[in-house]
Design goal:
single chain, 440 residues, alpha/beta, 2 domains, 5-stranded mixed β-sheet, two-stranded antiparallel sheet, 7 strands
Length: 440
């Protein structure tokens, strides 16, 4: 068997070569020595794992920064050599500092600016390295966007400091997050521009779809004297999932109801809707939701008023119908609805209507009566229960909290409508499981 060549003290040729390479990079060599000293743990009391983990992480950050800085120096030398080989007339005219941010912090290299007979200013290094002066690496942009769509831009600065060991300006976080949020919105809009009625033959028996809106506090763009007036705008959220499955597809927009309907159609299609799939839509009873269900899904779609929304109307009417036992009265009407006796509920409410001309907002019984009487075709709870379909819109209520409100509705938070729309679409893209695809 052939033995490896060995050098002084029994070192192999590869080990000798590695030692020589480290000698030419003293900063990297020092980092390796520090890591090895931690590994040996020869002096002082035995460290706990948490202490060792902290030391190694700090050293790895420094090692990473030293490595990319050394790479940048060698890259600058190589680019200069290649430039001279292509054009022997080039001469170095001056040096500038090329610096950018990455996950290891600030990286800088002395960058030679060149001139030739035909050109007075040649600076090829930024383009060759794929960086921009004072820019951000792609990986750091992903980190900032990830944090920025979850937390306020100011808080992201602290998150970066905690997890990556350096401080970056909040304005850079804001700019990066909004730029990629715009890209996410463009990507989704390209998807929504495609037809959603082109369906596969096979699909699940039932798709559950839900729609609802949430109010976002916005301000107009541009400078104004004094405090900017605020406006609450409704952002509508759509969601769809296969019955019995946890995976949900979302869409959000400030757009008109027709646009909301189209996005709901895409949600159902992306969730797996086939030609024979039935779409069970739930909502708060708003007329536009019923109309969009009919427009988008046709005879394959049905609409059901959210049972818990109806229950809120009954709870409001209960004191006016039976003041001595309002909870018992409400439960009786709920039980009637579940067994299909909605006519009895409407008749019960009709016997306790407030007088005509009562002040608006002071007529809970009349409001409940009108709500149910106008939606008798949308409260078939027994039919939904028999087929194992949901009667409450918990899916969309939960989605409001974790898809939109967690970032867009904070105490004192206001948004430019454009920026709120971008962030909403970025969060939708991530909630739909498209985050890796978005960056790769």
């Amino acid at each position: 068997m052939k033995q490896k060549e060995s050098g002084p003290q029994g070192l192999s040729s590869q080990e000798i070569q590695f030692a020589e390479q480290l000698r030419s990079h003293p900063v990297i060599a020092a980092r390796f020595q520090s890591i090895l000293a931690t590994v040996r743990n020869a002096e002082g009391p035995l460290k706990t794992f948490d202490e060792v983990e902290g030391l190694v992480v700090a050293e790895m950050r420094q090692l990473g920064k030293a490595a990319v800085c050394a790479w940048a120096v060698r890259a600058e030398e190589r680019v200069g050599q290649e430039l001279k080989a292509q054009d022997p007339t080039v001469r170095s005219r001056k040096k500038k500092t090329l610096g950018w941010w990455c996950v290891f912090g600030w990286v800088a290299v002395r960058d030679r600016v060149w001139r030739s007979r035909s050109r007075s200013y040649i600076r090829p290094l930024p383009g060759r390295l794929g960086v921009t002066p004072r820019g951000l690496s792609r990986r750091l942009q992903r980190v900032l966007t990830d944090f920025g769509c979850e937390h306020s831009f100011a808080k992201v600065v602290a998150r970066v400091g905690e997890h990556y060991g350096f401080e970056i300006n909040a304005s850079a976080v804001r700019k990066t997050t909004l730029e990629h949020a715009k890209r996410a919105r463009q990507k989704l809009e390209e998807h929504y521009a495609k037809p959603f009625r082109t369906l596969p033959a096979a699909g699940p028996k039932h798709i559950v779809a839900e729609l609802d809106g949430t109010m976002i506090c916005t301000v107009a763009s541009g400078r104004r004297k004094g405090k900017k007036p605020r406006e609450w705008k409704e952002m509508r959220l759509a969601a769809a999932q296969v019955l019995g499955k946890a995976e949900t597809v979302y869409a959000a927009t400030f757009g008109e109801v027709g646009e909301v309907g189209r996005r709901l159609g895409h949600c159902a299609r992306d969730a797996g809707r086939g030609l024979e799939s039935r779409v069970h839509t739930l909502g708060d009873g708003a007329e536009w939701i019923r109309l969009q269900t009919r427009e988008v899904f046709g005879e394959k779609g049905t609409f059901l008023c959210d049972y818990y929304h109806v229950s809120e109307y009954l709870a409001g009417a209960a004191p006016g119908c039976r003041a001595e036992a309002p909870d018992r009265w409400r439960r009786t009407q709920q039980a009637r609805l579940k067994r299909g006796a909605s006519a009895k509920v409407i008749q019960e409410l009709a016997g306790h209507l407030e007088p005509e001309g009562a002040p608006e907002g002071k007529t809970p019984v009349r409001d409940a009566h009108r709500y149910l009487a106008n939606r008798t075709d949308c409260i078939d709870y027994p039919g939904a229960i028999r087929m194992g379909l949901p009667i409450g819109s918990g899916m969309i209520e939960s989605a409001h909290r974790h898809v939109l409100q967690a970032r867009l509705k904070g105490a004192g938070t206001t948004w430019l409508p454009e920026h709120a729309d971008r962030i909403a679409n970025l969060r939708v893209l991530r909630a739909n499981g498209k985050w890796p695809e978005f960056w790769n």
